[in-house]
Amino acid sequence: MNRLLLEESLSRCAAEMDWPVDTVRNAWSRLTAAEEKRRLTMTPEVVAEILGFDQRTALRLLLTGFKVELWQVEWQVYHPVSGWIIHRAPSLGDITSEQLYDPFSRESLEPDLGLNILVVFQPHRQWEDPYASVCVTTNWATYRHQNLAWPFWDDGQEDLPPLSFTTLSTWELGKLELTVQPGETYRVISLETRSQLTIRVDGEPALPGESFILKMMSYRAVKARESGGPQSVDLTLASDGFTIKELEAAPGRLLLWIDNRSAVGTTVAVWKSPVLKGPQPLVQVWNARSVLNDTLAREVLLESHLPEGSRLRVSGQAFVFLAMENSAPLMEERGDREFYRFLAEEVSDSTKLFSSFGGFLFHKQIDTLSFCFPDSLAAVRSALVWNQRHSEAALWKITVFAGSILLTGGPGISFFGYPINLGRKLLEKIQGPALWTSLAAFSYPGVPEAFLESGYRCEQQAISLKNADHLSLVYECQPPETPDTPDQDQP
Q1: Which of 121, 156, 198, 431 would you label with 149, given CA atoms 20 to 30 Å apart?
Q2: In this structure, are strands 231-238 and 252-260 parallel, antiparallel, or unpaired?
């Protein structure tokens, strides 16, 4: 480690934070002295706990440290059933949009910023000790903490190690030995190659010279070695997984010889087929959605790291769409310069209002604006306030939609998806002061109550947004009548 370079990075961090260098140096020393599993999974919560800061200051320190290369970031795709990390990437642009297989749950998933991606900070690799030996992980607890998503560390399964466990380098031959019982099912799992092999045990205990293993994929017998020892079989682990997917063995001792011909070093473990608890609800933790919905984190970690052409799923977001009722007469009345000034003020005021509810502007086209929010309740509450402030002008139309969309690469932040398309199309069909929401947005917890508390009357409508044969359910929410508005029927 180059101490001069480290001091330079610490000084740059201190200058940007406007802190004394000694304060930053002390914070760095305390954070890097933390136990390994915490040091490699730093989040704003962890930093705040160690240093006694509030989480906003902790996040700012981490992001500033990332910019000056004190810290690096790891994006971790995990399965919400098993909790195991099945894909790691140094930036958002390196996360695959393809389906990923989790050998523990035997399920595939699509990486989703709203559901299954964590973001952790780690000391930058240039500050690692070059003389530190690269140790092969032989301890299950250590391996578990290295590869299990950190919210799952305390899931009560610490005392359930595998029956057999070995670590193999690329092109290394290793063995696993265990005793299998009749009627049981076992799984051989390689997390790094995202592959698993099932062993089913049936029949009478094997006798020397009569042991067998069946290759179920092609239904032909694979004879074990003729010896007086245990059942034995040779397995090949390729880059796309085990070449044999399912075996049948007799009860007794079983010896597996594994030839790792994959492109990565891997740990191979044998489990009695685990019974997983199912998806576990996670408390609000720092994750990919946190990055998307935080102004500073989004700017530092996301906007410049998503290459053009990339497409990543995002669930849980909500969107507010605004459009002027009819901008042409107003533009003609005020002229180009005055209308431009008026529109700029409206955009600025709307952006400030929506940002106070966690929203941000991601698309602007003349007199049409699109905002993204962390959830439907925040979107609706901001829209209610916005509608109240613009109740007299009656110049704008507003819709709120929610659902799963794609985050797309390119300059800035762009979204693509069905909810966005429908939200903008609905703007073309409506008029008046009503606030329109999609069924998904209206069904979000707290949204109906928010409308009720504000005095809105909401009715479900079926509107054709795509074609005449396809109707979409939306809610038309009318604001309360202004008490001092005179009745038009009276003279």
Answers
A1: 198
A2: parallel
Do 227 and 89 lie in one domain? The reply is: no
Q: How far apart are CA 126 and CA 140, in angstroms?
A: 28
Are residues 84 and 196 located together in one domain of the fold? no
* Cα separation, 175 vs 163, whole angstroms: 13
Residue 289 lies in a domain: no
Whether 96 maps to a domain, the answer reads yes
pTM (2 d.p.): 0.85
Given pLDDT bands bounded at 50, 70 and 90, which one contains residue 226?
A: very low
Res 396: pLDDT: 84
What's the distance, CA 225 to chain centroid? 47
For a pLDDT cut of 70, what percent of the chain falls above it? 85
Token reading at 344: 């700029």
Say how many C-beta atoms besides its own lie within 10 A of residue 366's C-beta: 10
Closest CA to 25 of 8, 10, 9: 10
Query: How distant is the alpha carbon of residue 258 from its chain centre?
Result: 34
Rounded to whole angstroms, what are the CA distances from 318 to 142, 391, 444?
A: 39, 23, 10
Q: Where are the alpha helices (DSSP H) in 68-207?
A: 140-147
Q: Is residue 280 domain-resident?
A: no
Residue 447 lies in a domain: yes
Instruction: Give the highest mean pLDDT range of 54-63, 327-336, 431-440.
Output: 54-63
Place of tokens 């559901």: 115
Bin 352: left if φ > 0, else alpha if -120 < ψ < 50, else beta.
Answer: alpha
CA separation, residue 104 to residues 73, 113, 201, 272, 273 (Å)? 26, 21, 19, 11, 9
Report which of 307, 309, 308, 303 is spatially closest to residue 291, judged by C-alpha positions: 303
- Domain extent at residue 213: 164-272
* Domain co-membership, 38 together with 113: yes
215, 244, 272: which is the final residue of a domain?
272
End-to-end CA distance of the chain: 86
User: In terms of domains, do 141 and 198 share one?
Assistant: no
> Do 96 and 173 fall within a single domain?
no
Phi, psi of 468 (to 5 degrees): -65, -25
* 407 and 457 both lie in a single domain: yes
Q: Which tokens is 165 given?
A: 């466990």
How many independent structural domains does the chain possess? 3
Kindly report, residue by residue over 268-318, the tens digit of the pLDDT: 999 887 667 666 655 568 899 999 999 999 999 988 778 888 889 999 999
Shared domain for 383 and 461, answered yes or no, is: yes
Helices (H), 119-225: 140-147
